[in-house]
Amino acid sequence: MSNPENLGYTEEHEWVDLGDAGTATVGITVYAAEALGDVVFVQLPEVGDKLVAGDTCGEIESTKSVSDLYAPVNGEVVAVNEAVVDDPGVVNTDPFGEGWLFKVAVEGDTDLLDVAAYNALTKED
Amino acid sequence: MSNPSPLHAVHEALGASFTDFAGWAMPLRYGSELAEHKAVREASGLFDLSHMGEIELTGPEAARALDYALVGYLSKVKPGRARYTMICDADGGVLDDLVVYRLATDHYMVVANASNAAVVAEALRERSTGFAVEVNDRSATCALIAVQGPTSAEIVRKVTGSDLDKLSYYASVPATAAGHDVLLARTGYTGEDGFELYSEAEHAQDIWNAITEIGQDHGLVPAGLACRDTLRLEAGMPLYGNELGPEFTPFDAGLGRVVKFEKPGDFVGREALERRKDNIVGTVRVGLTSTGRRAPRHGYPVLDGDGNPVGTVTSGALSPTLGHPIAMAYVPTALSEPGTALAVDIRGTSTPVEVVELPFYQRPA
């Protein structure tokens, strides 16, 4: 599964879809999902939370490890994907689709990697 | 560069994710570790365990040498049988937990964890000084394939043509698989009925392929180290480096039964262990369960009713079979009774847990 070209990425292996004017949809990349293994628990920020890019805003657990989720952009959380909370395995099966995690009403500028930069980053790892 | 298993090419062809384990590149998972875990509980899983250490002792005093070197009473083990035992240092600390097969009157095979294989081989050599015994570390040329799960007996019966009704738990027998000599043992580390096949490394691929072919009608899937860890945790089995290490004696780990003081003569650690056996004043290994989905994990603090740290989690996961978090931990003896309410600090959140009997999971009789 390759990384979609229309998305932005972070060094923490999150993807950000800025396609919906002013609202960013956030998930983790297939690279992250494969590295984690089967995801068994996600803790997401709550609707109304104010996020600061780079700060932790949740957790994602696989059978073996726990990882922080980082806010990729500044803004207010406007939606969270409850289906993923109920069935975290969707993060593995459809990381760029049904496995999205939360949506943010973006404030200010964003600082994201393009797909080429992200692909280069994950090749180095 | 990690040492590749003799089955490395097979794992690559199967699309495995690899992990470095004690200097070996071993398959972590082939696809979903939860699916592999489930397959072992409901059908069978095929494991490559070639990273484990195999050390043979041969000679007229092999039994006496092992009685001295290990905490178990190995001269009491009948040929064809195996024992779970430990090798301790002079202070009683656990250097490794072992499965020892007695293959013949004067022939034993000691199976050590990969991370300790060299240490165990060296200790056995040193401790054999003065005994008429030869110690051979065969780890580098010995492959180990395990078939674990409720359909494993049927698969192994077809692969080896052996009558498994005569092969009881913790027994071994010479057999053949894919035309090659193997040592076939009914042992395992998953809580299921299961078999382990020891062979020369150069034959491992043939044997793996033969088992895979026959296993496909019995729900067999290749299974990696990730699911092996959740399986052994559900079965309440200790893992060296988590529940076992030189800082613990077998008594601390709740496994004092492996220490056989009744055997004649001295053994390494006897004096320290004699002192320790009736004097467990520190912490002991317990099982913990909780509700919810967030698991206590290795290194998380265990808290008493007042929120004071009293112990440490050694292993933990959301149990794939049971659907709730399970963990093992060391806690003070006074707080180790099943039913005791404790808590675990899960990344800053105090989460209630209850002390429970081990194992968490037992296969249906």
Can you give a write-up of this model?
- The complex is a heterodimer of chains A (125) and B (365).
- Chain A has helices at 30-36, 82-86, 90-93, 115-124; strands at 8-9, 14-20, 23-28, 39-43, 50-51, 56-62, 66-70, 75-80, 102-106.
- Chain A has a single domain (8-108), classed as RNA polymerase II/Efflux pump adaptor protein, barrel-sandwich hybrid domain (OB fold (Dihydrolipoamide Acetyltransferase, E2P)).
- Helix content of chain A is 21%, strand content 36%.
- Chain A is globular.
- With 125 residues, chain A is an alpha+beta fold.
- Chain B is α+β, with helices and mostly antiparallel strands and 365 residues long.
- Among the domains of chain B are: 3-52 and 141-235, Probable tRNA modification gtpase trme, domain 1 (Gyrase A, domain 2, 2-Layer Sandwich); 53-137, Alpha-Beta Plaits, CATH 3.30.70.1400.
- Chain B contains eight helices and 20 strands.
- Chain B has helices at 8-13, 33-42, 62-69, 117-127, 152-160, 204-215, 225-234, 270-277, and strands at 3-4, 17-21, 24-29, 44-48, 53-58, 82-88, 94-104, 107-112, 134-137, 142-148, 172-177, 180-185, 194-200, 220-222, 283-289, 301-303, 309-318, 325-332, 341-346, 349-356.
- Chain B has a six-stranded mixed beta sheet, with helices on both faces. In chain B, strands 15-18-17-16-19-20 form a six-stranded antiparallel β-barrel.
- In chain B, helix 2 (33-42) crosses helix 7 and helix 5 crosses helix 6 (204-215).
- The longest helix of chain B has 12 residues, at 204-215.
- Chain B is globular, with a radius of gyration of 21 Å.
- In chain B, 50% of the residues are buried.
- Chains A and B meet through strand 4 of A and helix 7 of B.
